[in-house]
Write a structure and sequence with these properties.
Number of helices: 4
Distance between the termini: 10 Å
Shape: globular
Radius of gyration: 17 Å
Number of strands: 4
Strand content: 5-15%
Length: 139
Amino acid sequence: MRRQRTAVYLVENALAAIGRKAPFEKIKSLTDTVPVRGNLIPTLVTFSDLKNPKTAQIVRPDDLQSVFDKGYRTHDLSLTLIPVGLWPFDFGGPLGEPVTRGIDRQLSWVNNVSNYLSGRVSCDPQRGESCLQAVHFRR
């Protein structure tokens, strides 16, 4: 429930940022596209090797050039809201749009990493260490 609530807070806060309110119980049926700005932007990550979680690198939205090269920048980010349907039957049609599935096919390690992606058992963000965990890539 916590992860679902976190996603709902993003929607609530993105709507609030443009002056709109949506009650929690209505969010699952909304259809709209809203801008995502500032501290609402989720953590962006890239991998130099999708098969190796230790190659994860956090990308600051305001500094894409340092990772991808000159000319790359974040222009706009938006959140598209779609009706979610009735889980686990959310595979389209009158039951709503399908939920993204298959992350484990792209990131084969996602169900096997128990500590931080760096391989460490602890992390200290104050020292600039990445505190990414496999759970950050799962629903």
